[in-house]
Amino acid sequence: MAAFIIRRLGFAVVTLLAVLTLVFVLVRIVPGDPAQVILGDQASRDAILAMRVRLGLDRPLWAQYVEFLSGAVQGNWGASMVTGRPVIEEVLRVLPWTIELTCASLLLGAVIGVPLGVWAAVRRNRLTDYIARIASLLGLSFPPFVSAILLLFGFAILVPLFPVISATTGSISAWWQAIALPAINLGLITAAYITRVTRSAMLEVLSEDYVRTARAKGVPWHVVIWRHALRNALIPIITVFGLYLSILIGNSVLTEIVFNRPGLGKLIVGALNQRDYTMLQGMMVIYTLIVVLVNLATDLAYAFVDPRIKLQ
Amino acid sequence: MTVAAPRSLRMPARYLLRSALNAFNTNKTSWVGLVLFSLIALAALLAPLLAPHDPIEQNVLAKLRPPTSDHPLGTDSFGRDILSRLLYGARVSLVIGFVATLAAMAVGSAIGLFAGWYGHRFDALVMQVMDVLLAFPSLILGLLIVAMLGPSMTNIIAAIALTSVPAFARIARAPTIAVKQREYVEACRALGYSDARIMLRHILPNIFPEILVMGSLWLANAIRTEASLAFIGLGVKPPTATWGGMIREGFENILDSAWLTLAPGFAILVVVFSLNLLGDGLRDAVDPRLRGEA
Question: What is the DSSP secondary structure assignment for residue A261, as one 8-state letter?
Fold first, then answer.
């Protein structure tokens, strides 16, 4: 087990280094001088030189790289070019909103997706299976901002059950109104993924010998499905989660924009529109950290669920 | 005595056609996907003939009109005809999607082939890099690249292609490793064929169907990513019509002119869904083991 954890930790560190390097390179191949971009065309030569010193652009590339890496690891991601506040402060301010939305949608996705996937697998090639497959394929095809707009149009404009602009705080009902539609939007798309993965994992497991043995022993069908089969099907479901996270992050950005909900997505798009390069760079670091940490957690969960993994 | 090569290795056109037909007939939904997608592609191709108006022609007297006989899908806030913009927007989406997917297919398959063929450290290193890219949110990476380099068609294509390369590398690598150990490849080696010749002439044809099927699924993804980038404001510059851009512009008027966003939104959904139906059905036929996997 220890060797497994060390190997996975090693991979996480390599991933982190690689993406940070990519971010460093990307930010520096921007055409034109960043100092010029920040200060605009009217800026004097002195002002541009001063800005270059402030940004550390006057130093050799390797020194900038070392400084960027050590800063990134220590949580020092620079200050926003627009507000002047530290990037980490801005990120921590909106992070709870994004985490709340992500967790709610994952919960909703699992509550809908797992039973639907199991049901489809058990009734393979029958009407229920076809409906579940087409519905999940449709869910996967929805660009998240289109489904978000449809939800907004349906349940905030045609039938005004929810406010058009959420993000109200205070009472429980305000919280519910703010999170319901965004969470349903992300949750349904997540459910589509989970349904497909659960279905294929269950199909694989249902043809195993131990399932037949359990049936032959007279174990009731529902016990076989939920206790014997689903537990083993959980392994591929967890594996896919690490991959799905990157899709979920993209989807949550688009959802936050449509519902005008604070969060990392709104922050990154705001930084984009204002050409706030340090903010963008910092946001990439936080996304990298999230991806690496969650992938590490899924790997460990994987080893926890399946004892065979540890032995390898 | 001469020994004829097995049929599957010679791959005459008729054989290819028949196996493609078989793949389609295994899963009827692929037909639905193919027909839907062909119709849209045809509409995009014939846009200059089908469009009732010039897609960028403004008409201040006919702003935000609901659907009428002259403007079947209404007009936007500049008085431009939505149907015409939708038809021309399809061209942008499809061109970006196709070029990005083909580029990712070529680069990714080459990387996968090389990694699988040479194996060992080279394979480990290359696939590590691919895994890193795969783990990273493609929308965020695309967004950063396009934001940094500027929203031109080339940059958008490059960004989308880069994010889909690892998927093709993975798909090409696994069958390469499996095929590498087959006897006919061993025979090629014994005959002294070069690595490049074996890879191109003897391995690639065998893994090509799988790459092609994944290509249709990733084309759907590329079109969706392009629309998402355009919705965020990183699409091909206005006044060129793009579906994501139309939704972005129409979203400001959602309260009174919902058709501005609903029409392009529906268009994106139909294209992506048709490609998913097509690719999903074909994948079942090409590799039954992958059935229903996300």
Answer: -
Percent with pLDDT over 90 in chain B: 28
Residue with tokens 């936080």: A286
Shortest Cα–Cα distance, A200 to chain B (Å): 5
ipTM computed for the complex: 0.84
Q: What is the pLDDT of residues A102-142, one digit of tens each?
A: 999 999 999 999 999 999 998 888 898 889 989 999 999 99
Distance, first Cα to last Cα, chain B: 49
- Tell me, rounded to whole angstroms, the distance of Cα A20 from its chain centroid: 18
**Which of B36, B141, B217, B229 should be substituted to probe chain A, the one whose Cβ sees the most A Cβ atoms within 10 Å?**
B141
**Entry field: residues in chain A:** 312
Selecting from B131, B143, B254 the residue whose C-beta is nearest the C-beta of A272 gives B143
3-state helix, strand, coil in chain B (%, to 5): 75, 0, 25
The angle formed by the CA atoms of residues B173, B179 and B181, to the nearest 5 degrees, is 115
Six-digit token string for A213 = 């043995």
- Give every CB contact of residue A229 below 8 A, 6+ residues apart in sequence: A118, A202, A205, A206, A208, A211
Question: Phi/psi at A284 (nearest 5 deg)?
Answer: -65, -40
Q: Please give the Cα distance from B141 to B133 (Å, whole number).
A: 9
Q: pLDDT tens across B208-226, in order?
A: 888 888 898 899 999 999 9
| Residue A309 touches chain B, beta carbons under 8 Å | no
pLDDT digits (tens, 9 = 90+) for A20-73: 887 788 777 766 666 776 677 777 888 888 877 777 777 788 888 888 888 877
Alpha helix stretches (DSSP H) within B198-258: 204-232, 243-251
**DSSP three-state, residue B75:** strand
pLDDT at B259: 83
